[in-house]
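Bench notes, afternoon.
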Amino acid sequence: MPHATQHADVITAELDSALSGGPFHVALRAAIAARGLPLQRVQHHLSRHGVKVGVTSLSYWQQGARRPQRPESLRAVRALEEILQLPEESLIRLLAESDERTADRDSPGRSYRSLVEASGVLEQLLDELGAPREGGLHTLGHHERVRIGARREMAERESHHIVRAHRDGVDRHVAVHYGDPGSAPERMRVHALENCRTGRVRRHHDTGVLAVELLFDTRLRAGDTFLFRYAVEDGTAGVSREYVRGTDSPGGQYALQVCFEPGVLPVRCHRFTQHSAAAPRGGRQELPLSARHHSVHLVEPRVRSGYVGISWDWG
């Protein structure tokens, strides 16, 4: 069957080329064709992995008419890599690279963060904790240290806060952690490191959001300052490519440091800003990576409303 063999070789070559250079929808279409699976069978295999995706959505994805963006959809992409016998992270990587090219054209940034905010998940979690969005604390300084692990995942985030109370009786702070797409909040761990202890914790699996009460051992009066430090042990998602910090009120100094494993370093890093989660990105500036300390950082002398972050390219 020389003709059949040649046809199979052509399909395999097309798949290899698509996985190497993308774009995502071409690679997905080539992978489905190479395995000879109708979309109904792909959907069936996904359901066996505990992921629900419609045949119409799969068709749109392989045509490039729509892109997987929701956390459930990103879990489906990871399952597709296994179902279609593809290398791990091959489709996710193409999806992320496409997102980066979109961001470079000053299009809206991380859609999953916009989705989280639009869905009201954060408000739901705060309501469950009985915490108002305005917690009675003004930020004088905030230093975050994000550690990227050997698998290129967000392994841990440590936050050091310096705050001032602007009303009497404040005795807690509700911290929010946004996991990367595909993260599992139920496997994250919160560590109270200094001048606080953990209270109630709320998690939302579909969006990767964790909210935790950090309880002080004192009630602050208006004008009192306070320092506290905590960490979130994550490491539950795939490859991480950026960290974003958002605020809806002006504050004091903000510093962000991203630390990498010595043998797993990105090829370049950038600072960026956004006025809102769905706004175009601006303020893009390349940041030097410390060869000695394997880290990159930014400092905002005075925080303004909106978002600031660091992205990195693995090459």
